[in-house]
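User: I'm new to structure prediction. If I give you an amino acid sequence, what do you actually give back? Let's try with this one:
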Amino acid sequence: MDAAQRRWPEVSERRLLLIRLAEEGHTALGLDQAELDAAERDERLRHALRRIPSLIDTDRLLSDEAWNLTAQP
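Assistant: Good question. You get back a string of structure tokens that encode the predicted 3D arrangement of the chain. For your 73 residues, that looks like this:
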């Protein structure tokens, strides 16, 4: 906190200094919202792709039964 106070002498509240430090850390890491959103979207996609085999009966889908509208599930 001492280093932060020296960096921003005009900021006297510790809470505001902590906010400034967090902002600087965020900038230093280069994590912008678009990158975070893309990473989250990619993870959701991977999760969905892993679940597909448990949700779809591929044998039935590829059979004629899947396309017969009068067939019962």
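You can read the tokens as a compact description of the fold. Here is one thing that stands out. The mean pLDDT is 85.
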